[in-house]
Amino acid sequence: MLNCLNTILGFLILVLQLINPSTAKNFNNDLNILDHNIVLVNTNATVPKKEKTNFETINPTKDTKIDDACKKSFYYIENAANLIDLQAKCWKVMGNIEISSNFSGSMVDLGLIKEIEGDLIVKNNKHVFRIQGYNLESLRKLELESLTAFVSLDLPVLKEVSTIDWKVLPILSSVVINGNIKKVKSIVISDTALTSIDYFNNVNEVDIFNINNNRFLESLFTKLESVTKQLTVHSNARELELDLSSLHTVENMTVKDVSKINVAKLASVNSSLEFIENQFSSLELPLLTKVQGTLGLIDNKNLKKVNFSNVTDIQGGLMIANNTELIKIDFFPKLRQIGGAIYFEGSFQKIDFPELKLVKGSAYIKSSSDELNCEEFTTPKHGRSIIRGGKIECTSGMKRKMLSVDEDGNVLGKQESSSEPGKKEKGKNNTKSQGGSKKMENSAPKDIFVDIFKTSVYTVLTILFAIVF
Question: Which Pfam families match (predicted)?
Fold first, then answer.
């Protein structure tokens, strides 16, 4: 009977709640069974913490164990999942990491990877927009090439890298490296949209330094003191100002398309030195003493002032051509020897080498100015020429003189010609022909390269004869 009464009483209370909720009584410790705000979760319960990986809880050192999965020689990343899996296992990667050209993600995030003993290679990809590695401190080579959508590189703690090789990154405009790098062997940056390259200002020596075709790069400053193989700067913004004021020694150096240059401390060139198609008006190298290869000043249209005041020896050739504003070639006051040929062409009026004693190659000199005196080269003092390469050709305005000499500087023959109307070519040598008429038997050929051509033809015919017979 009591059970029935309880059931009836519960039903009445339910009906009353539906009719007027405010009159409902709370039962069972005042709990309203129809309250929609009832708390269903125990607020005193402890929420389980996210388990941290080893990389987040410890700072890896050389003694930190490296997972076997991180010891492969090569990792080919085809998608973001591959990369996430790799960084979840490896704080250090022993081999190369290459991002596939089919990688469709816009970002390459190296995440927790701190060291890459091999190379990081991203090539021929049209999707990658950004590469970042906030923990990456070292790798061997950073090779980025043909990334048409690539805009941003962010490696803020990178300290060690052997090779920088960036090519065909036409919209790359943002790089964060923060100048932590002190040693690099090779730096090649080509075809980017960068406006400055100041990430390597703590680097003093490299093997290769090649900055080219960065069309918005108007200023380039470096603290490099030595370049052991090749220094090349060309085809960047035409307004580029190049500051190599710390450079002391270089193997080969080519500078092209520069509006201003500072190489005042350069003292040693172990091979060749070339300045081509620049816009600067002044070139000062007061400390340079020797060039062990060829020295070239070519097509520098505004060049007026040149200083090679301490150069005594050029072991290769000397080429000075088409420097429109250069009126005199008189900036080698101490030069004593040229190991190769000389080639001078332009509108200069005077050539002066007060200390020059020997040119081991031939000489080709051509000026549009009538004021140039060719006699200094074609009429040797004391009967012996300082030119020992066999041929001397000097043109001043419309007049041309040619001289043939032996290896001791003895004159073997002379020839003069003129482009003026009514002037005829004349020649003489040191011997007479039979019949008493004078004839030039040993004069220099009209073209300075004819002898080379003949030798080449003879060699080819000899080889063909040997093959056929």
Answer: Recep_L_domain (PF01030)
